[in-house]
Amino acid sequence: MARTKGVAGKIVRYLLLIVVCAWTLAPVAWMVSLSFKGPTEWYAPNIIPAQPIVDNYINLFIPTNPIGGSHFFTSITEPITKPLINSLIVAGFGTLFAVLVGFLAAYGVSRYRAGGTFTIFFTLLTRMLPGATFVAPLMVFYSSIHFIDTYVGLILLYTAVTLTYAIWLMKGFIDEIPPEWEEAALLEGASPWTVLRKVTIPLTKGGLAASALFIFILNWSEFLFALVISVTQVTTLPVQISKYVSAVGRMYGTQASIGIIATIPSVALGYLIQKHLVTGFTFGRIR
Amino acid sequence: MPKLVVKNIRKVFGTFEAVKNVSFQVEEKETLCLLGPSGCGKTTTLRIIAGLEVPTSGEVFVDAVFVNDVPPQKRQIGLVFQDYAIFPHLSVFENIAYGLRVRKMPVAQMERKVHETAALVDVESILDVPGKKLGLSEMQRVAIGRSIALDPKLLLLDEPLSNIDAKARERMRVELGKLQKEIGIATVYVTHDQLEAMTLADRIAVMRNGLIDQIGTTGEIYDNARTLFVADFIGSPSMNLIDCELVYSEQRAILKSGDFTLDITEFAETIKGKPKGEELVFGIRPEDVSIDIKKTDPTAIEAEVRLVELLGAKSIYHLKIRGLTVLAKDYPMAEVNFGSKVWATFNKDKLHLFDKKTEEAIF
Amino acid sequence: MEITDRLAQWMGKTESFKKLSTLPLSLVLNFVLIVPFAIMIYLSFTKWEPLVGYDWWRAPTAGIPRFIEAFGDVRLAWALIRTATFVAVVLPLEFLLGLGMALLFLGDFRGKKAFTSIILYPMMMPWVVVGLGFYLMFQYFGPVNLLILRPVFGEGAMIDWFTDPVLAFSVIMVADIWQWTPLMFLIIYAGLAAVPRRLVEAAEVLGASPSRILRTVRLPLIKPLVVIALIIRGLEAFKVFDIVYIMTGGGPGGNLTEVISLYVYKLAIVYNNTSYACAVSLIIMVAIALITRLAIRPLEVKVE
Questions:
Q1: Contact state of B102 with C207 under an 8 Å Cβ cutoff
Q2: What is the SS3 string spanning C7-47?
Q3: Cβ under 8 Å to B: C residues 147-206
Q4: Domains of chain B: total
Q5: Which residues of C fall within a CB distance of 8 Å from B85?
Q6: Is B250 within 8 Å of chain A by CB?
Q7: Is there a domain that residue B363 lies in?
Q8: At what angle do helices A252-272 and C127-137 cross, to 10 degrees?
């Protein structure tokens, strides 16, 4: 291997790497570019805006009348602060509950072999089936108990849906801790709860945090259920984006800016847990 | 025409000089052993010969061809790794056939060759077994078979027996020795076990800190150690090495260590010119120290037995002689136990003397 | 306070802990998933829609006709075919591109960490934003047309991507590939890096060229990993919804890029054809459960 890559090989490698990077950065680069462009430049090919503006972003929060005149179809009539906050609330609590319930269950399964094979299989099943197949009965059920367009309804749904990830991820972290330490504590008379509190949790803190962040990213990005459950109150950011794309027509700049805003938190968090991404997406099968 | 010529090899990793200056030759059908403690540079040297590392300076010639720039694929050298590196996903057959397939050997010929090789290393019964299911000694044989199937010009072995437990190791050592005689390829063998080296090699190069301390036949290394290190490293149990100084008294040359004295006047010629009082080390192998209950030899010295190790044909006696601890290897004697008083005789023909500072042998 | 004391005591015991630990899990799952699932089964045997006038639990049982309807549903068949095509195209491409990238990254070079970081971020983006991004890029006056096609092939080469169903579907596939190739890359790379260096060196000494080593040593050894990755990615690809919704909404022509998730969604939410949606959902669920159970069980045993 030492001799087979000469200088030519190195150049080829770097060239290819640049191509791959360009391909990877292109969509976001274009969106960033658009988001700083005024309407006159939306149809232009230049990547660097000739006259950069921040109006697109400002308009998201403080809607004014149609940017760039009346030949666009509609305007933005409401600020995105509400969807933004909704996303935070729903994703945040959904993650919190998923982590709590999932951690407990993962611990029970890992240390005490709680739950039969059915439980495990069922949690896997929730990921295998398309979300859309749940939507019909879900609507019926939720409207009967008045959960439509409620925070509780959506948060519970998110919890249920991400539980699989939560359990598999955290079980992996729990398994890494040698059980001897917990057994020692148990022998000294501590109850399983105390053991959890004093031994397991401090040791798996890192893994828990990584799992939580991963699930948060999933919840933040979630679209289908939010689309179905929300009407006016719990609209999340992804849903709002979809509204813009259909209703707002060709307001590229504004669409781009809301896209960028929605992306920033999840990518930022994603970089924090970079190493764990593969583990997360493969249910802990591949570390 | 030597099969392998290694000239002034030097290899530096960052700031660490793994190999300082190594040169040697290996003839056809000869087995040379690179012997030394871990970290001495022997494995690095081997890898350089194989082409897996590029020397910082120095030359390697295989079959009189300069191979420094030749990649390992083309050197026609066989290499058996310490952990054998058997392809776990391939069967034994496929492992051995691997190199043959690379050469696009016709199928019939290849199958014959594989069976031949398998017979040679005694793996015919497990040809279908996948690599990951093999036991250690099976893996070793497959690794060797895999290398020799290609009829390489040179065979390199990196500590092939260090992974095997002690009991099996003896058996494998014998098998390996037989195999080497049968195959007859020039071989370079790396190990840290001096017993292995002594039994398997024709010549040994004792290495230390990236340099060769001494290179010679097994007999030469054993009888004529040129440095203190070689003397100490070779031999089981190790040579007795005792710090002493040279004194002259009444026309006699005497080695003195504490209360212990040893008359070496017969070697006065050899050590002429050595000033008295110089720090020296004298060495004698335990098998050259004999003991007796009675003083049969006039030069025998009184000794007290501190420990007796019963090893079978011979026993090892830990003696205390005038404050010094000396090991003697002699026949078992029922009457000799802890605390017994015996007479120890040193075979002066087998005496070694080293300069303590330079560590070189005087004789 | 005796009751709470006894309760606390009981809770502390190992036996009860075991049951308690999965209790919240069961509660949530039962409530959020199993109840709707039961409703779904029930409803698929009825004929009911939200606006029909009576409550759903009073709906008359109508037997099997819903299921028979499903088998005659052409739009459903097309949706399934499209989704299958989607998976069949996207999966191998993601694998090959991921493999290519992994090979590119093999070995040490300056800036490796930085390049790796850049490559990863598509996985972290919300699905809808990925759809949005590609939607914006492939607009008629977007960069793909303006910066690539027009300068290279001239004015007439500009394409209206979203009015042609095949082209639009291709753009959707490109978006998915863009987002998930990094995942395949990571998995494959991890696998390749885990191949012991000794084995590669052994192959080298035996005369194998780098491409031969790749074929005969590296790839076979990462097979189990790759299989898992493909299965997981395949299942997710089958469920694709967000990017289709954002980029085409199923169009052009209303349903020419409709994938199965989108069709079921429309049945349930847009057309309010609830009981039929339930029937279709049930059929799909059963099919997936069966297929995965049959295909994965033997594989799992082998891989473990």
A1: yes
A2: HHHHHHCHHHHHHHHCHHHHHHHHHHHHHHHHHHHHHHCEC
A3: 196, 198-199, 201-206
A4: 2
A5: 196, 198-199, 201-202
A6: no
A7: no
A8: 140
A11-33 residue pLDDT tens: 888 888 899 999 999 999 989 98
Check if B272 contacts C (Cβ < 8 Å).
no
Residue C205, both tokens? 């000494």
- Asked whether B19 and B11 are in contact (CB, 8 A), the reply is yes
- Averaged confidence pLDDT in chain B: 84
Of C11, C178, C186, the CB nearest to A27: C178
- Residues A116-162 pLDDT 10s: 666 666 767 777 888 888 888 888 888 888 888 888 889 988 988 88
Element containing residue B57 per DSSP (H, E): strand B57-62
Residue of A40 and A114 predicted with greater confidence = A40
A5: nearest CA partner in chain B = B71
pLDDT given for residue A70 in this prediction: 41
Q: Do B208 and B320 lie in a common domain? A: no
Distance separating alpha carbons of residues A88 and A43, to the nearest angstrom:
33
**Percent of chain C scoring above 70 in pLDDT:** 85
Beta bridge partners of B265: none
Residues of B with CB below 8 A from A3's CB?
54, 69, 71
Bigger pLDDT: A286 vs B184: B184
Tell me the C-alpha distance between C52 and C59, whole Å: 10
The encoded tokens of residue C8 equal 């606390």
Best CA proximity match to B60, nearest among B10, B13, B16: B10
Q: Is A222 left (phi over 0), alpha (psi -120 to 50) or beta?
A: beta
- Delineate the domains of chain A, giving CATH numbers in brackets: 7-53 (no CATH), 81-281 (1.10.3720.10)
Asked if residue B131 belongs to a domain, the reply is yes
Tokens for C220? 């076979």
Q: Which two tokens stand for residue B120?
A: 């040679």
CA–CA separation, C143 and C168 (whole Å): 16
Q: Do A101 and C210 touch (CB under 8 A)?
A: no
Q: Are B228 and B354 in contact (CB under 8 A)?
A: yes
pLDDT digit string, tens, across residues C155-210: 777 788 888 889 899 999 999 999 999 999 988 988 888 889 899 999 999 988 88
Whether B227 and B258 share a structural domain: no
B46: burial class by Cβ within 10 Å (0-12, 13-18, 19+)?
Answer: buried
DSSP notation for B15-42: TEEEEEEEEEEE-TT-EEEEE--TTSSH
Type of residue at A229: I
List chains touching C (3+ CB pairs under 8 A).
Answer: A, B
CA distance A23 to A18: 9
Say if B145 falls within a structural domain.
yes
Tell me which chain B residues have a C-beta less than 8 angstroms from the C-beta of C201.
52, 72, 79, 81, 85
- Which CATH number is correct for C74-303, 3.30.565.10, 1.10.3720.10, 1.10.8.640, 2.40.50.1070? 1.10.3720.10
Largest CA distance in chain A: 76
Identity of residue A177: I
Find the range with the poorest average confidence among A122-136, A164-178, B256-270, B275-289.
B256-270
Query: Residues 6 or more apart from B117 whose CB is under 8 A from it?
Result: B96, B145, B148, B149
- Residue showing tokens 């809770």: C11
Query: Do B195 and B282 fall within a single domain?
Result: no
Cβ-based neighbours of C88, under 8 Å, separated by 6 or more:
none
Contacts of B78 in chain C (CB under 8 A): 205
What residue segments make up the domains of chain C, in order of their start?
74-303
Task: Tell me whether 0.90 is exceeded by the ipTM.
Answer: no
Q: B256 is in which domain, residue-wise?
A: 240-355
Taking CB atoms and an 8 Å limit, are A267 and C12 in contact across chains? no
